[in-house]
Amino acid sequence: MLKQISAFKMLIRHTAFVPAYKPPAEKDFETIRYFVSRHKKILILTGAGISTESGIPDYRSEEVGLYARSNHKPVQYQEFVKYPKVRQRYWARNFIGWPRFSAVQPNATHYAIRELEKINKVSAIVTQNVDRLHHKAGSENIIELHGTGYIVKCLQCSYEVDRYELQQTMMQQNPDMENSVTMIRPDGDVELSREQIEKFRVPLCPNCQGPLKPDIVFFGDNVPKERVEKVRNEVSESDAIFVLGSSLTVYSSYRIILQAKEEKKEVAILNIGPTRADNIVDIKISTKCSDILMDLHNTI
Predict the structure, then answer these.
(1) How confident is residue 6, by pLDDT bands cut at 50, 70 and 90?
(2) What is the distance between the alpha carbons of residues 32 and 24, in angstroms, rounded to a whole number?
(3) Is the pLDDT of residue 25 over 80?
(4) What positions does the entry give for Zn(2+) binding (predicted)?
(5) Does 146 qualify as catalytic in the annotation?
(6) Is the pLDDT of residue 163 over 80?
């Protein structure tokens, strides 16, 4: 009985960040099944909407997104680079949130994508997510459009470090903070007092003492040119684009759709709620990704 209660609580916690949606109709499943069956090299573009079932909230969904649930706004790149106090606040919160963030596991959508790879339907996965859940699900040929939270780099030299290793360094530098690691809100964010933040020792590059930053494209920053070019090549090599769980609000993802349409490729979107590209794509279905994808590979 206790195991059943625990499983139910976990289900509630993980689905708490999934926006309200209508279950798919049979025709929705058939539309996607036919789309996937007639293409051999599908580029899959994923956004935060596919990770909500794993317990990671997205930004923009009504009522359940981070913007709707709290006043929390992502750190801006220029502020992070310019102000030591911004870096101190960021790293203090990141330090507390890391154990839970890094423990998050893939959900049915991530595994469904992996199954489509196994039957040679997927040419590449371009993800806007920094959570590495595609990697955990066993997927291959993944381009992390906005980088990853699992690697940290120096802003002044070529030094980089695994995020797990950096966590150990920060624990050694901030032993008083170790007992605060469980202070995490349901959305994965944390609230620290001003005193806790001001006492936090920010990690520095061991080679040049420069500031360290996760290998993530912060708001206000640009996707590296070589990554943009790699994505462009993958789009050209594909024969269709399948968007999963993205509103395509940011231009770095929207331009993928623009390129695909310029190249006369079919584009399908599976996402709860509207997207920036709804009026230019071939197929748009608004429902939860896993409800469509879970057994898709068995029907093709």
Answers:
(1) very low
(2) 11
(3) yes
(4) 154, 157, 205, 208
(5) yes
(6) yes
